[in-house]
Specification:
With about 230 residues, this protein is of the alpha/beta class. The protein is about 40% helix and about 20% strand. β3, α4 and β4 form a beta-alpha-beta unit. α3 crosses α4.
Length: about 230
């Protein structure tokens, strides 16, 4: 893990960027969010200033109830199976976790840019829910969740939990340049989760920001760093 830019890491980034000048960028939104989130749309507009299309799949698939990490990975896999060009995945929160698992399998993913990624999500998030609520969720098989993308409460199947708990993040071993932005004051996913992920993974660079989970106030800073790398692609 590195915290500040170093020559070795920068050269590693440059190598991957030069592999293919027609790289595609895919943005994966977070849990209970949508392609129309403030962050997703701001990045789409910023990429447009460079004449680069930013693909933003809807991970809800009009079926939030049956959402699982596996389903999200499978959905993104459909974009990658026959893609000849290199791909850069940008993932926010649970979208970041999805990106990490997807990149483990598909070698045409050449870089990860993760925004407050939800590492250790199925432990940390569950600990934030009181035991009675968890017991009722498990018993009734669904829980009402406020969905920011739809601006309403929606039911979510308990399968979301049982599926997520089958993933062991210690098995994520592919050496792929990974840039993580995480707020020091993240109230949803503690920055310690990114520290733990980056530890002993020398291909990961963690940038700590004075922000919260949303990181919307840091988009200009994040974009500046992304933009510096785009020039090697286009």
């Amino acid at each position: 893990m590195t915290v500040e830019t170093d020559k070795k890491y920068s050269n590693q980034f440059l190598y991957h960027y030069m592999l293919n000048h027609q790289s595609k960028y895919i943005y994966l939104h977070g849990f209970a969010s949508s392609p129309h989130s403030i962050k997703a749309q701001k990045f789409k507009a910023l990429f447009a200033t460079k004449n680069i299309p930013l693909i933003i799949p809807d991970l809800n698939q009009n079926d939030f109830y049956h959402l699982t990490l596996t389903r999200q990975i499978q959905q993104i896999s459909t974009y990658l199976k026959n893609e000849q060009n290199s791909v850069i995945l940008i993932g926010s929160s649970l979208g970041g976790l999805t990106a990490a698992w997807t990149a483990e399998k598909y070698l045409n993913v050449k870089q990860l840019i993760l925004l407050a990624p939800a590492f250790n999500f199925f432990t940390d998030w569950l600990q934030s829910i009181d035991q009675n609520t968890l017991n009722n969720w498990k018993k009734q098989r669904e829980l009402s969740i406020y969905h920011y993308g739809y601006d309403q409460e929606l039911p979510l199947s308990y399968q979301f939990i049982t599926d997520g708990q089958t993933y062991d993040e210690t098995t994520l071993k592919r050496s792929i340049p990974t840039l993580i932005f995480h707020g020091k004051n993240d109230e949803v996913m503690p920055i310690e989760s990114s520290h733990s992920y980056a530890k002993n993974r020398e291909w990961v660079k963690l940038i700590e920001l004075d922000s919260n989970h949303g990181l919307t106030d840091m988009i200009p800073e994040i974009w500046k760093r992304i933009k510096n790398n785009i020039r090697y692609n286009y």
